[in-house]
Prior knowledge:
This protein folds into two domains: 52-283 and 300-408, no CATH class; 429-491, no CATH class. 62% of the residues lie in helices and 1% in strands. It contains 23 helices and two strands. It has helices at 3-23, 27-39, 52-68, 77-91, 98-102, 108-122, 128-143, 145-157, 160-172, 174-178, 185-200, 208-224, 229-242, 246-268, 274-285, 298-306, 313-316, 321-339, 352-371, 382-399, 429-438, 458-461, 485-491, and strands at 445-447, 467-469. Helix 3 (52-68) runs antiparallel to helix 7 (128-143) and helix 18 runs antiparallel to helix 19. The chain is globular.
Amino acid sequence: MSKRKRSQAHGRGAAARREKRKQALPRSVRLRSMSDLLLHPVAPDERPWKFLLPVLALAFVARAAIALSGDFVLHPDEIMQYLEPAHRLVFGNGAHFWEYFYGARSWLVPGLVAAVLKLFDIVGLGQPAWYVGGVKLAFCAISLLIPAGMYFFARWHFGETAARVALLMGAFWYELVGFAHKPMTEFVATALLVSLLALCVRPAPDRLRIVLTAAVLAVLVAAIRVQYAPLALVVLGLFFLRTEKKMQLALAAAAVFVAVGLFDAITWDGSLFHSYVVNIRVNLALVDFSAGESPAWQFLYWLLIANMGLVALCVLALPDLRRYGFLLMLIVLTLLIHSTQSHKEYRFIFVVIPLWLLIGADFAVWFASRASAGRSRMLLGPTSLVLTASFAAVSLAGILNALPYQDRVYQAYSKETGMVGFLRNQDPVFAAYRYLANASGVFAVWQVDRPYYNLPGYYYLHRAIPFYDANTGHLIFADPKKIEVDEISASVSH
């Protein structure tokens, strides 16, 4: 080949390469395509379901009915870490637990409770008869983010039909209903994380309002429940790949992160992230005390009991990782994070519940569509009715504490454990303290049947009166045999 012909051939090849580079997708588009392989977001053609708000209203009614029907404690942390400190902050009296002596807990959730208590106090309703129910209803409202987030995630990830089923599951599954009013960090963080999931899969992730909201939600999830930080980071990372406003997202997340650290420093009069540092140090120091407390597979056992094995649907989802891989990854990550620690409680993995329900919703639609082939209305077929009846039966049995071995799910491996009764078999000590809050002639209370950390505290007692506990009261010695009954009985009215 002549030199001229070789030059022409080389020129044509270079031009072809330049043209190919021009046609190549921009880097931001390639990144979005990578994340879309996992999320496969689809913009629905129809408007959101017209019954979305009515279903959420019914979900709130169901949650409020359980919340106001009585009192139970999943774990004493509900009182010790969130309700009692808030009461002490607003009303001035309350037990001072060690975490708040050393500053080992963030004030984010107790601060929210304190804000509600202060509002009730301002309007003249600063009594347990009013504010206990008010705080419960506030957390019930927050919990509605779970069914709402499940609906929009499934709508953009699976389709409208699966979204409606997911909405109904999230609205009426007994665990999401029964624990909705609890101020535990796991439950609040789950509501925020499911909302973040919905934003992550949104077809148009470039609106500034959506970007800022995603940043706030991700940081709050991590701040409220540190163990959920890896989940929030994964979801926010996928959102980062999808959005074109990457700089705005990063700056917003950094700003909220610093704000959380400043809030912690101000509330504890210490350094940035004071409570988080102290909490980590304490847990590292105490890690040997819980060694061998529970097996690594404990969470799997609890999950199977709590839903009669329905969570096994996740195993059926394994062959279709294109469709379910994202949700399965979050479930596995949650279990791995919490299974490495010896101390395990079912509430720690609460976020798994809406995740497996999302998979179950899509499976329910798939089963119904196959069984109703040729029908004009798939959701009215016999398979749909059987699936609906099964879901309702398990959920109803759960809310009545009638599932086999259900009582084993809520046990804590320590003396600090609650008595979970959504509607039945509730702990009568709460009713007793509600009575004492308004009864006449109450000047002091001596609790003799349990330690202080398993009691309703001043949050329910409310009165600024002496409280005597078998372990910590100043008139009660460590050795029960040395208790001077006559002296105590002379100073205690109840």
